[in-house]
Design a protein that fits this description.
two-stranded antiparallel ribbon, 420 residues, mainly beta, single chain, 18-stranded antiparallel β-barrel
């Protein structure tokens, strides 16, 4: 285990709790530039630019027709029954404190998953994210740390053994200099670690380094245009060639352009296009050379309706035993209709296609190609400023090269959230 992110988060927590509480909320998405096909999730966390305090208690009651994420034969081999009812209590928090021009923040969530029938699947998960939103002269510096611990999803593990805990840690630094109009140099660097506690998933333990410099031109009339390069290096810590004893892994080189534009209060778009070259360490592994991209757009159709769409193609370190990396083509979108100030409906869908590229000397790879299609609808009711109820239902289906790893799942649930 790497202790850097844990120490950073602990220090941030002590600093945040020592300062007086604030009630004002104002988050903005993390200002990540395109990773050039390195496969980082965008917008998964937020960096606050004002003091805030929020604590939520959450309880989710759910029926799932297929918790095994496989066909019935594979489920029986794992000792599982397909349908089950779940109860998931948990909570989340956001803390941000101002120290001069700097904002120190810490966010976290945790939950426990109880199954009525398949109690062997009971599990907990913890996520922490913290850092400093600092301003020194014309530059903004954002050092951050992340920590998460969770049980592996059954859809990903693919072997009869069930319990595997994955721990992920990351430290990163983002720097952006410049004025609201004109040229702005930027630089992001990060290092992350993924570890597992059960064989053969321990062969997926990795250390990944990423660096991405860019030069942006900002203008309120034309938007934000940036040219970027990116370099990534992933080492599989417990996987070596049996012949040369060389460590398994790969390097990623990419470069491209990103364009961000906000048109009035209706359209907000973020586009990036890059060329990516992924080079494996070991001979016999397949390289990747091709186009990577990401598209994200939000459109406000009047006062009540909002539409959002995301599409991307990226290479990522694979979380499948026997694989080296994956090529992911993801598409998702949603439409939200605000009935009034308290009630809204949302319809969302996604299609995630994944190709896992086999690693040399790592054994067989059962899941080479898969496509997961999901449709979900929910109704969100804000009873008051403290209580929110969400009723949801949906269908998920995976088609895979191995029919036994395909599945269909119907889920219906109710989420209750209490906000302090």
């Amino acid at each position: 285990m790497r202790y850097g992110p844990v120490f950073i988060l602990a220090a941030l927590a002590l600093g945040a709790m020592a300062a007086p509480a604030w009630a004002e909320r104002s988050d903005r998405p993390v200002g990540e530039q395109s990773d050039g096909g390195l496969g980082h999730q965008k917008g998964s966390s937020t960096i606050p630019d004002k003091p805030e305090t929020e604590v939520d208690l959450i309880a989710d009651v759910l029926y799932d027709s297929n918790v095994a994420r496989s066909d019935e034969a594979r489920a029986k081999a794992r000792g599982l029954t397909l349908p089950d009812e779940l109860f998931e209590p948990g909570g989340s928090f956001k803390l941000a404190r101002a120290f001069g021009n700097q904002i120190v923040f810490l966010q976290g969530s945790g939950r426990y998953n109880f199954h009525r029938v398949n109690t062997i699947l009971n599990k907990d998960s913890v996520d922490l994210y913290g850092g400093v939103n600092a301003h020194i002269g014309p530059c903004q510096e954002t050092p951050t740390g992340k920590f998460s611990r969770h049980e592996s999803e059954l859809a990903e593990t693919g072997f009869v053994g069930i319990a595997n805990t994955t721990t992920e840690e990351e430290v990163s630094l983002g720097v952006s200099c410049g004025r609201p109009i004109g040229f702005s140099p930027r630089f992001n660097v990060s290092e992350s670690w993924r570890s597992n506690d059960r064989a053969p998933v321990t062969t997926l333990d990795t250390r990944t380094f990423n660096a991405s410099p860019s030069l942006a031109y900002q203008n309120p009339v034309i938007g934000n245009v940036s040219l970027f390069g990116a370099f990534g290096q992933t080492d599989f810590l417990n996987r070596f060639s049996p012949i040369t004893h060389q460590q398994d892994g790969f390097d990623v080189f990419s470069g491209g352009v990103r364009y961000e534009r906000k048109l009035g209060g209706r359209l907000d778009a973020d586009l990036s296009l890059s060329y990516t070259a992924l080079e494996p360490y070991l001979p016999g592994a397949r390289a990747f050379h091709g186009i990577s991209y990401s598209v994200e757009a939000t459109y406000q159709l009047g006062r009540r309706i909002e539409a959002h769409i995301e599409a991307s193609r990226a290479t990522k370190p694979s979380n499948r035993v026997g694989a080296l990396y994956s090529i992911d083509d993801d598409l998702q979108g949603d439409v939200t209709y605000h009935v009034g100030s308290r009630l809204k409906f949302k319809l969302q869908g996604s299609r995630d296609a994944k190709e896992n590229v086999a690693a040399p000397f790592a054994g067989g790879l059962d899941l080479r190609n898969s496509t997961v299609t999901t449709v979900l609808a929910d109704a969100v009711f804000d009873l008051n400023s403290h209580f929110t109820f969400t009723l949801y239902g949906g269908h998920e289906q995976r088609d895979a090269n191995d029919p036994g790893l395909g599945y269909s799942s119907v889920r219906v649930g109710l989420t209750t959230k209490f906000t302090f």
